[in-house]
Amino acid sequence: MRILVVNVNTTKSITDSIGEQAASVAAPGTEIVPLTPSFGAESVEGNYESYLAAIAVMETVRAYPEPFDAVIQAGYGEHGREGLQELLDVPVVDITEAAASTAQFVGRTYSVVTSLDRTVPLIEDRLRAAGLSDRCASVRASGLAVLDLERDPQAAVDAIAEQAVRAVRDDRAEAICLGCGGMAGLAERVVARTGVPVIDGVTAAVTIAESLVRLGLKTSKVRTYAPPRPKQMTNWPPA
């Protein structure tokens, strides 16, 4: 089984971290292929960058030359999953939905701890669109930019854990979702601070994707995710 794990930004070190985290939970025989888009922003922290990332991710997957069995979109709250599902028959798993759906198996309510406050509405909207918002106690911002997670890992853990503790204490969350692909690998340290289950969207997405492939399930093509209709595209892809 081959699973493509596509970073939504162009920072190769984040792609490497996401790939390592995905591979750490992959079953024997599952090949994890981390991919970095060839264009886009170095980090995705707003609507403009998110829509650009959606195009970049779709084009990165379209350009991949080998067969694959599933795709993971490794950006929290980002756009584009629906477009990938139109383009592909194989399962497409978004880490936002993977984390939130997994959290609901281990707690009545969950909270998301993300990076900057400006990303909170994007995540809230994605959860609502996916039908996963009813049991979301809160979406909290750590105040860290995505690239800060790499610059000072200890400060990142402290800031994320602080918001996670507040989510459990003040918002009555019973599980925590790490709301950024760049937070891959931090779950155990946040568990130690909070005492509740902490879900990393990358690892959750890998196990869900593997399960869908093993069950022989593919993306439905009868209506919502039918392939794009053939038509003339003007100046696309750009030279």
Automatic annotation (TrEMBL):
Transmembrane segments: none annotated. Pfam families: Asp_Glu_race (PF01177). It comes from the Bacteria. Belongs to the HyuE racemase family. This is Aspartate/glutamate racemase family protein. It comes from Saccharopolyspora mangrovi.
